[in-house]
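Board notes (copied after class):
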Amino acid sequence: MYTSLGGKIERRLALVILFTGAIPLGIAVYLANALFKEASAFWFNPEVGRHLDQGILLYKAYVQVIKEKAFYQAEKLWENPSIQKALLHQNQAAIQTHLDPLFDQDPNLVGVRVLEGDQIHFEFLKKHMSSSFGKRVFEVRKTFPLNPRVTLIALFSLEQEKFEHFAAGGAFVSHYHGLVHSRSELYQGYIKAFALLLGITILVTCTIGVLFAQGITRRISRLSQAMASVTKGDWSVRVPITGSDEMTELARFFNHMLDEMRTSHARIEYLMRLGAWQDIAKRLAHEIKNPLTPIQLAVQECHRQYTGNDPKYSKILNMTLEIVEEEIGILRRLVETFSNFARMPQAEVAPVDIGDFLRECAEQWNTYLETEDSFLSLSKEPTSSAPIGLHDLRIQWNISTRPMPTWIDHQMLRGALINLIRNAVEATQQYGEKTPAPSGEGQQESVTVRIHATPRGRQVCLHIEDSGPGIDPLLIPSIFEPYMTTKPEGTGLGLAIVKKIIMEHGGSIDVSASKNLGGACFTILLPMREDKPQAEVL
């Protein structure tokens, strides 16, 4: 399904990129074709070719006139009797005398040569000949009538530029006629070039479009697969964070949303279970509490009404009364615990700095430790264990001096901390390490509790760790469940109550092994004070 979805998006993106590149190019091809046809119709007009040909013919006629004029001048030159006589007598000075006026009359005449055989016999050049070097010189030859071995050569010059213009014009006209004859082939060549360019553009655009689309659809597919996994109840799935664009931000927000949903889902499930256990505790408290008083009164009445002298029976009766009253007392405290658990109030939070609150607790509890009062009597959970000596309980405080404002219910949070300390003490009583007594006589149980408080981002972090035996890793996932206990006579409500209190404050609690003291380490996270937290109740 997701592959099909990705394929559809890939095709759509590729088509969008293709049309974006191909449509303008197609329009350009159409306009170029129209422009070529219009230019071809204008430039390849037969009238243009005819006028060009007439221009070349006119240029040829002009050159021919110049040549004919040169031949005419040469004829006049050789037919001059004076020049013929001077040539016959080989009088060079006389020849030069007769040529100078002719050089002045005809600017194109630049020299005369007399060849005898292949050798130059005489050569007469126009004065200032250097000015004619930029011109084109052509010869007019004629055999001397009076001596066939003598060849007369008249040298005429024309401006080189005129010949270059004529040559360039001829080449242009020839090229133009070539274009006219190959116009259809040229047109087809341009069309094929544009078609090839269009094909290459389509191929490159499709390739780039597919690659670009795959980069997007691959991440969309991952996001879709993750959403499908979430709908099936898998809250552990996460979308890989790659890149730095909007899709990356979407993946990051999606993972953050999953974290929040997973936490909320776990809290809701826990609160539902806790609500069910509260209802059970309420029923049990009611069912157990009602017959306790009649049972106690009945036993006491039996004990009071007996007036016999049988010592054995009296001893049994006294022992029975003592056992019943002791067990009823334990049951009453158990009923009271159940009732308190079933009637847990909603937290009435107030703004406070958690550092000030803990320093106040430290001062109060140090006072308790210095008196004869039992520190553990602050907790209401029943136990048959003998309280540990107060001098064997050491509470160490490590409170950050930085501000840690939050919302708390003083009484409830204080009770939660006392409950955690009590668990450490009772675990040490039952399983704890043995340390030498201060007097050196025998062994006694000792426990150290260390409380850390530091800000962590927008949360307040509390670490409560102890030197007790710790918690079995197999029990950690269910340690906060109601009626989960490792104590022979415990109710298993202490940690459940603690977690409920922390959740009432909008926080969370977790447990792990203490790296410093070797026992358990409870981590409590409470939100910093911004808005008043919403109590999480069922």
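Comment from the instructor: Residues 372-391, 432-444 have pLDDT under 50 and may be disordered. The longest strand covers residues 150-159.
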